[in-house]
Amino acid sequence: MVSDIITDTCTVCGTNLVVTERAIKERAKRSAEFRCRSCVAKNIWKNFTNDDKAKRSENLSRSLENYWTNLPDVEKSNRVTMLRDYNNEYWDSYFNSGGDSVRSEKIRTGLKNYWNKLPDDEKAKKLNALTTGYAEWWNSLSDEDRIVRSDKIKDYWNNRSDEDIQKHSDRIKNYWKNISDEERTKVSERVSVVIKEYYKNLPEAEKIALANATGERSKKWWSNLSKEKRSEMSEKNRIKARNYWDNMTSEQYDELSRKRAIGYNKYLLTLGDAPNKNELEFMNRLKLLKFTYSQIEYQWQYTSQIKYPEFDILFPINPVTDSKVSYQHNWDFMVHTGNKSILIDVDGSIHALLPGQFMDGNIDVGAYIQFNDSKRPYQTDGYDAYIVLCYDNKLTDDTPVLSFQSGEMMTVKQLIALLTPLSDKRQ
Fold first, then answer.
1. pTM over 0.70
2. 390/347 Cα distance (integer angstroms)
């Protein structure tokens, strides 16, 4: 005959569990207190040595891995769904009840200690597995499923009280405030890897939608800040940015400048044509030359690549902004004539500003431009270079042109003529 089913309470954790009458009688014979399986296991685990714990953990991990590997795909999917739903229900219930700060702290401490004890290669392996697994799972979802999951996340945060959101924000702030610089760097690198992998696997349409949504959220957030708060945050960001640049080595700055120049050139290529009328007028003359002479080719925007050996000695710092100086320059045009190439900048009226003539906030624009222009003779990559001095913003045949290599002046008409004999005329 089956024993009657009754409930009893664990004397350690207070959990109510279903037990049999026989179990209660057996325990009464031994005068033993009732403990749930979890508390019994904890008591046993507490008495193990560290070596025993390590061996048992390894055996358990291997057993679970073998068990999971041998599961049919359908069963894996069912179990993942079941666990996900269980976790969602648990955490919903947890937060709705106000949460258990002691339990949360134990979980955080336990996970942190576990992670810190892992070897670097094991950390890398686990991170790669998580990243790859999440990407595969996300890619397996239909568009409808992705929308549903995104809506669930939005609903979750929309239904949280301001107090809950503030607590969440405070926990994150305190975490970043209390970790070391080394740990902060490691965490940032891990997050960066995960975000890049996630973004890489998004369809192009979702990338665009994500970028637009992020931009709109940022605009809304910024517009809701008070003028004083904006000013305070801007100053903090300015100081952080300044410290970031000041602590960067010359080699790191050069590498970053190179990458930024490559990205800027890619952006400019998407524009199709020169953005101002002076450059566009000069481009039209090059197009006509190209139509007439077979070997003429040109590209709009060329970024210098070779660093002049004494560049850092000549330009150790920008005296106007008190900041580091890039060794690269974006030339407006590179013209190929068949047997040589030359660089050309078309300078508009802004290049005629003198120091002190115009201020943009605390920046002397005239002094800033004059300083940048002074670097150009050392940013030619060894090519011949010319500056079209279109200070009246009206480019004509008579607009003056400066030759860097000779220091002599000529006109736009003479510059075009200089290119012409170097090419074969089309038949």
1. no
2. 6
